[in-house]
Hints:
Order of helices and strands: EHEHEEEEEHEEHEHEHHHHHHHHHHHH
Catalytic activity: a tRNA with a 3' CCA end + 2 CTP + ATP = a tRNA with a 3' CCACCA end + 3 diphosphate; a tRNA precursor + 2 CTP + ATP = a tRNA with a 3' CCA end + 3 diphosphate
GO molecular function, one term: magnesium ion binding
Pfam families: PolyA_pol (PF01743), PolyA_pol_RNAbd (PF12627)
CATH architecture of the domain at 1-110: 2-Layer Sandwich
Cofactor: Mg(2+)
Number of helices: 17
Domain Poly A polymerase head: 3-122
CATH topology of the domain at 1-110: Beta Polymerase, domain 2
Amino acid sequence: MQTYLVGGAVRDTLLNRRVVERDYVVVGATVEEMLAKGYTQVGKDFPVFLHPKTADEYALARTERKSGKGYTGFICNASPTVTLEEDLKRRDLTVNAIAQHPDGTLIDPYGGQQDIANKVLRHVSEAFSEDPLRVFRVARFATRYHYLQFTIAPETIALMQQMAQSGELKALSPERVWQETKRSLLENSPAVFVEVLRDIHGLNDWFGELITSQASLNDAIEALTHTHTDKESSTPYKIKTPEQLLCIRFSALCSGLSAPQTRALCQRLRVPNSVSDVAQLVSQHKDTLLSEALFKADTLLTLFNQADAWRRPERFDLVLAAMTPLAQINHVAWPARNALIVECLEAANRVNPQEIIARGVKGPEIRTALNKAKYENIAAVISNTNINAL
């Protein structure tokens, strides 16, 4: 029984990146032996265990044979006779197929170190094509390591194109595709994810709305290129959480889509409501937010009502933040326009419903009087603003 550190921990150490998690492969052991040593089995399809003290993942060395469609159609062999080299051969990329002996020695039968030196993402073997999820994984790795100037090997690009054309990508679950999309959108260069899928014709099955027109695709790529975090961003809203950044990035992905198209994409990928709500609001109102019609009190009041800016101010803030890259690609000076919207919303929020009720207004007339007072406050702000400067 021998244990080796494998995968991302080895790869990122060689790239001088922070190691987030450590995974191990165990050669020459059985399930019974792992359980006897106190490990907890967590893998249903594959023999994966958690270390009793560190909770790191330990998987028995295994080989896999394709038995059906998708990423779950495999027959697994995890007998003690499976060698380390056989286990590494089933992995996706050579840079992920490097193991480290406890004494620090690297075992690299498929040239992963050379590919790291050459900054190349290359598939280990033709077995790569048996798992369609790898198309999205490679796109994600290309996105993550774009800043290091990594590229995908031509033969791997060709194989990914074949996989996309085979229709196998349809067999994936929405949850798995969304997870790869989400992780890619949170990387520093999210546009690369879309560009890779475009180049291998991998957008058709899951992101069909993006290729309904060249403009839709171009807008998505350009808007994602303009998404930045915190200090780099021209939005006044500081991005504090990954979910906030994801909302902005996914809205950028949908920047060239209509509201129905954005809704369809969200439903297909089963995007969480917190993210899809922002993207759909951006798609619904972006034309108004970028047009001269915005400088009318009734337009802004309708926007605030439809976006429920009164009860969901944090979400509305994200909508405005997500407009920053869209404004940039449409050559609209957003900061000043954004400031006006915020000032108008604050003015409208100063209307006190209790004061209206105290005047004797009752029933449905309360809402009418409330909207009228909000309209007047918004109009007062606009009248004191130099619209020509916006």
